[in-house]
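#lab-general

N.A. 3:47 PM
ok so I finally got the sequence cleaned up, no stray characters, all 352 residues accounted for. can someone with queue access submit it? mine expired

B.Y. 3:52 PM
send it over

N.A. 3:53 PM
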Amino acid sequence: MTELTIPTTVSSINDYAFSGCSGLTSVTLPVTTIGVYAFTSCSKLTSVTFTESLKSIDRDAFYSCPGLTSVYIPKSCTSIGYGAFGGCKMLLSIEVDPENENYASSDGVLFNKDFTTLVLCTTGKKGDYVIPESVTSIEKYAFFNCNDLTSISMPETLTTIGKRAFGYCYGLTSISIPESVINIDEEAFYDCGIKSIELPKTLYSIGREAFYRCGGLTSISIPESVKSIGYQAFCLCDKLTEVQCFMQEPCTADKTIFDSKIYENATLYVPAGTVSLYQATTPWNLFKNITDEPLLSGIEDVVADGVDAIDYTQPYEVYNLQGALVGQSTDGLAAGVYIVRQGEQSAKVAIR
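B.Y. 4:20 PM
back already:
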């Protein structure tokens, strides 16, 4: 089937109705509702036209339609399910009628009307992306499968990161989560390309499978504020060699948060004087190597001028003068002298 004409007497398209119609190239939809996976995997679909009768597009309705390059949402549409256009590798733009009361768009990205929720980033977006300062919530699956994004800057207004929001973002190698975020939802960074991540010092919980199969991670620092870590949160993070816990009391966690390989080979760094407490608490006592010795930086040559040596817009690590890692940001640090490391560059900086 290459062409499809739907009469105006049809008000809804049910779930999976045209799923896998790989010959379909364009369609006009004079309907009110479009169901789950209604046009998923229509591999040659390049054009979709919605009329003013449209009220809702259900989740994943056009998932994995690689030929779509742009979508226009009419003013009548009041509901768009998560991932409605996810996995559309060539989709560069989602535009919304200015008179739509529920949604708006900017730079081709879909938001709610007041730009407080980022609903969906187009999968075809490349390079760096800065989330607007007004955004407080990232919808689940919002950046799902955005493989060509290499950098995402999150605003200090952000409080919520939804389920699988950054799943399968293989090009995203590092990310800093602002202090305003207290919960990381389940599977938020599922099978993501990140090699380093800065968790906020205010973080309360890490959801199940939050960093599942993030195979590039070599170390992780868990803030003192964390009270719970969900099932398999760091499972299949096979390159982890260092896990640093700043919690004076071990938080609640399932023994599956790490793989047996990590428990066997990685070193767990804990606060001074808490080794026996961690050794008596599951799952932390599964680590073969637990120490309260400082995690040293290995920095030998330190330049005097930190301003010129370090690009503070890019990820970096902060150590105290004893060489112990204290975080990935100078924000909120007590006054004193610290060592900042970024790649091969290092600098001694003073916080006043």
